[in-house]
């Protein structure tokens, strides 16, 4: 087993034994050279002992270049391969639909910079922690829309989350419509665990599907709903009107969240209701849901390999050519 480079495997590892010869051969050549060459005694070396030129500094490097070249060629013969995937693993897989409120009140500034930006950021962190789940995204205001169907490509989900903004849909809070859209995406799922995480900061006041009806359908299909009420207690600086140019006018408004409705939806479907009054409490809510919803499954991941011997061989050629180039230029000797 390769403990030094756990992701590298060799097709012909026997060739690696030749690496032991690299330090032995220079020692043998030096011993043979000393045996063959004659020597003579000089009266003094004081005149040249402090000479330090580019040539004198490069000469000791030559054996190293040749050794590195030989090592690279031997490793290339062993045919290294980079394993791009791991073995079969145990993982947790659940189908999750995120339902995000995009009504104008999500721009309230009791969260910094506002409720929507914080909700998006925390949701993205949650997605990153669920690598083996299928996730999707539904948004709602006065109407609902499936922004992203269930997918294992979490980069796509996070891109959609990052680009959410208020004003894309007719204003209002259609909680029933948002939940119904999520249920519609989950009802045919074969997963043993199907959940909805519904986040809102208001009271249901729009849509032609009542929240109670949507929760009954969710219960019928075995879909658990976690509801989150986002907003501080009391009042907050929120949009109170919108100008002709589309910009919102802000003023202090009362924070109204239909906690009774959200508690009933969660209770009827086997989920929980949470109230988040700041970013830290919202992070804690998602962390708790993350711990509650874990189902172990087998995930088979096939190994793919990338051939690396060409790169190693090119490095060997580079070291060898550098040695030859130095011998023909800076370290050139006269016959």
List keywords for this structure.
335 residues, alpha/beta, Rossmann fold, 2 domains, six-stranded mixed beta sheet, three-stranded antiparallel beta sheet
β-strand number = 13
CATH secondary-structure class of the largest domain? Alpha Beta
| Count of DSSP-assigned helices | 10
Q: CATH superfamily of the largest domain, please?
A: von Willebrand factor, type A domain
CATH topology of the largest domain: Rossmann fold
Can you tell me the number of structural domains?
2
In which range does the helix fraction lie?
A: 25-40%
Query: Structural class, judged by helices and strands?
Result: alpha/beta
The end-to-end span amounts to 51 Å
Oligomer: single chain
Kindly describe this structure:
- β9 (235-242) and β10 form a beta hairpin.
- The chain is α/β, with parallel strands linked by helices.
- It folds into 2 domains: 1-36 and 56-84 and 306-335, no CATH class; 89-298, von Willebrand factor, type A domain (Rossmann fold), CATH 3.40.50.410.
- The protein is built from 10 helices and 13 strands.
- It starts with 7 loop residues before the first strand and ends in a 7-residue tail after the last helix.
- The chain is elongated, with a radius of gyration of 34 Å.
- The model has no long low-confidence stretch (mean pLDDT 85).
- 38% of the residues lie in helices and 22% in strands.
- The strands form 4 sheets. A 6-stranded mixed β-sheet has the order 6-5-4-7-8-11, with helices on both faces.
Task: Give the topology.
Blueprint (H helix, E strand, L loop, with lengths): L7 E3 L10 H16 L17 H5 L3 H16 L2 E4 L5 E4 L2 E7 L13 H14 L5 E7 L3 E8 L2 H9 L12 H12 L7 E7 L10 H10 L2 E8 L4 E8 L5 E7 L4 H11 L3 E4 L2 H14 L3 E4 L5 E3 L1 H20 L7
Parallel strand pairs: 4-5, 4-7, 7-8, 8-11
Antiparallel strand pairs: 1-2, 2-13, 3-12, 5-6, 9-10
